[in-house]
Amino acid sequence: MEAYIIILKPLCSSLLALLFLFVLSSSFADAKVHHHDFVVQETKIKRLCMAHNRITVNGMFPGPTLEVRNGDTLVVNVMNRGQYNVTIHWHGIRQLRTGWADGPEFVTQCPIRPGGSYTYRFTIQGQEGTLWWHAHSSWLRATVYGALIIHPQEGSHYPFIKPKRDAPILLGEWWNSNPIHVLREATRTGAAPNVSDAYTINGQPGDLYNCSSKDTVIIPVDSGETNLLRVINAALNQELFFTIANHKMTVVGADASYLKPFTTSVIVLGPGQTTDVLITADQPPARYYIAARAYNSAQGAPFDNTTTTAILEYKSAPCPAKKGFSIPPVSPSLPAYNDTNTATTFATSFRSRTKVEVPTDIDENLFFTVGLGLFNCPPKARARNCQGPNGTRFGASMNNESFVLPSNFSLLQASQQGIPGVFTTDFPAVPPVQFNYTGNVSRTLWQPVKGTKLYKLKYGSRVQLVLQGTSIFTAENHPIHLHGYDFYIIAQGFGNFNSKTDTSKFNLVDPPLRNTVGVPVNGWAVIRFIADNPGVWLMHCHLDVHLNWGLAMAFLVENGVGELQSIEPPPADYPIC
Ligand SMILES: *[C@@H]1O[C@H](CO)[C@@H](O)[C@H](O)[C@H]1NC(C)=O
Ligand SMILES: *[C@@H]1O[C@H](CO)[C@@H](O)[C@H](O)[C@H]1NC(C)=O
Ligand SMILES: *[C@@H]1O[C@H](CO)[C@@H](O)[C@H](O)[C@H]1NC(C)=O
Ligand SMILES: *[C@@H]1O[C@H](CO)[C@@H](O)[C@H](O)[C@H]1NC(C)=O
Ligand SMILES: *[C@@H]1O[C@H](CO)[C@@H](O)[C@H](O)[C@H]1NC(C)=O
Ligand SMILES: *[C@@H]1O[C@H](CO)[C@@H](O)[C@H](O)[C@H]1NC(C)=O
Ligand SMILES: *[C@@H]1O[C@H](CO)[C@@H](O)[C@H](O)[C@H]1NC(C)=O
Ligand SMILES: *[C@@H]1O[C@H](CO)[C@@H](O)[C@H](O)[C@H]1NC(C)=O
Ligand SMILES: *[C@@H]1O[C@H](CO)[C@@H](O)[C@H](O)[C@H]1NC(C)=O
Ligand SMILES: *[C@@H]1O[C@H](CO)[C@@H](O)[C@H](O)[C@H]1NC(C)=O
Ligand SMILES: [Cu+2]
Fold first, then answer.
1. 499 alpha carbon to ligand 7 midpoint, in Å?
2. Architecture of the domain whose range is 172-347
3. Using CA atoms, how far apart are residues 243 and 332, in angstroms rounded to an integer?
4. CATH 2.60.40.420 residue ranges in the chain?
5. What is the position in ligand 4's atom list of the atom closest to the CA of 341?
6. Nearest ligand to the C-alpha of residue 441?
7. pLDDT (tens digit per residue) in 461-490
8. Fewer beta carbons below 10 Å: N end or C end of the chain?
9. Closest ligand 8 atom to the C-alpha of 443?
10. Taking the model in full, what pTM does it have?
11. Which CATH superfamily is domain 4-158 in?
């Protein structure tokens, strides 16, 4: 009896261990680790009749498309062989406990200096759909960006008809001048930076620009098939309308979250946003323009008023209709640049695909104004450094705080290592002064305060945040992006948010889950999320011009007490200043 038990015990436990190993390996068998090298380098790019030297990844513009599955790990070794500081941000990836890999310079890391390198490592957890990556340093993202596509895990599927093909459509913005110089000039003068010279689709401006038509991007289709287009707005400073001549689009996802499908002939994306659409090739075989141009909500502000095109080409289109022949593709109609009605109808059509669990019992009730401002010319400054309106310098703020990045430590390093003097945690939960945010704002309120203030959140706190646009200097739609989180957009509207009456508009059943919300021009949006990812997370306007003016703040989310509730230690090659 004794002997029998003694023999059985080790046998049993090794069997158990074997069984355990088997279960482990079968459930994670398909989780892969993808290794990539990103060489950041100067590359000659010919656009709009000229050759330009621009920073790219691996000499490609746009950069390489990364394709992974939900659950996979990405290991990207970024080597900086260019002449500028650089960082890479994995836009929309939650970076659960890996904030060190998020990317925004001086927020979660110091820049990778010329000659340096840094390996970003992170795992995709519970996300499927279209995201993207881009530089998060100066204006390098004008040419340093690419798609990041997350397929469902092996054996699972998209919750919609399997598309025959799928294609990323990256909308970009092109300057004939070096974008770094455009930003430097604006920083020196205090005026608005020059607007771009072209928009692009997958790096090409298309037929409506000079010297550009022979390189126009072609998206081939077969009659009858349904394809998935993954549209990404990678422009620096412009919300864009996007359409395809004579074809309807069925929206099925955005920012790597599924939506209740709806059909539309035009979509609108703020910089940072992605939208997945199905299109069926159900028109007579021919060539059709795919086109994008500005949605410019700011009245009277200069903007790039050009139109970029690509071509949807039916493979069975009669020969004369194909490339190189003279019959022009079918033209679409795009909304007027100031068509806020179309933008609003589109944004308010979004519903999550299923019922969702929206956080209730809110712990943190926050109200942040978002808008522009003007700094009076500092004493001793020269007139040439104050070329904003009436001798001012442009600024922008949240709750009157115009965000300034540190320069000696990243905020994340400073917070983790308790380094004093880099930031404070007194970012105001509500505006310091209440005023008619969308009214005729008194000039005495226009000048914000510069600082590096964070808002501290306890691990697990349930947050509601009202983002209230202001009409200071000019009202405008602001695409507000939160790092490290997806959030539910539970309502949006025009005018001033009214906490008594507007709660009736809250959708707590199936609101969309996104990482970037377009706060309507002269209006507001309400978002909710649970602070379950410790670290320092930048929240900012994704119009880079506004980000540079200070339209940003950061949340400092504390570690929780549970085993998997604290940030991992920093990687050995983590860049410090
Ligand atoms: C910005 O535009 C102005 C006016 O066209 C031009 O003089 C200036 O050189 C431009 N700046 C840059 C950096 O291209
Ligand atoms: C194309 O070139 C012509 C002649 O130089 C110029 O007048 C026109 O403005 C240019 N068009 C665009 C879109 O740049
Ligand atoms: C934009 O360009 C179109 C022509 O393409 C023109 O009709 C319109 O007036 C322009 N709008 C602005 C605000 O410049
Ligand atoms: C849009 O701009 C045009 C002029 O470019 C103007 O006539 C029209 O009233 C504007 N529409 C709105 C809704 O502001
Ligand atoms: C600039 O000054 C003029 C004249 O005093 C005034 O009409 C205008 O409103 C001012 N603009 C701004 C943005 O302060
Ligand atoms: C970092 O920079 C800030 C702002 O210039 C300064 O106040 C602080 O003392 C610096 N911290 C350290 C540790 O050098
Ligand atoms: C705020 O300003 C708007 C636009 O001028 C005006 O219609 C509204 O009545 C004002 N609201 C309040 C509460 O004063
Ligand atoms: C806005 O208010 C200022 C005074 O604060 C006044 O001079 C101006 O006329 C007002 N503008 C409008 C459009 O109501
Ligand atoms: C922002 O703060 C400055 C400095 O205290 C003040 O002059 C300005 O009126 C404030 N503006 C708002 C909108 O709170
Ligand atoms: C590059 O980054 C370092 C910190 O790592 C910083 O000291 C330096 O000023 C940056 N250079 C530029 C041109 O921003
Ligand atoms: Cu903005």
1. 16
2. Sandwich (2.60)
3. 7
4. 4-158, 172-347, 364-565
5. 13
6. 8
7. 999 999 999 999 999 999 999 999 999 999
8. N
9. 5
10. 0.94
11. Cupredoxins -  blue copper proteins (2.60.40.420)
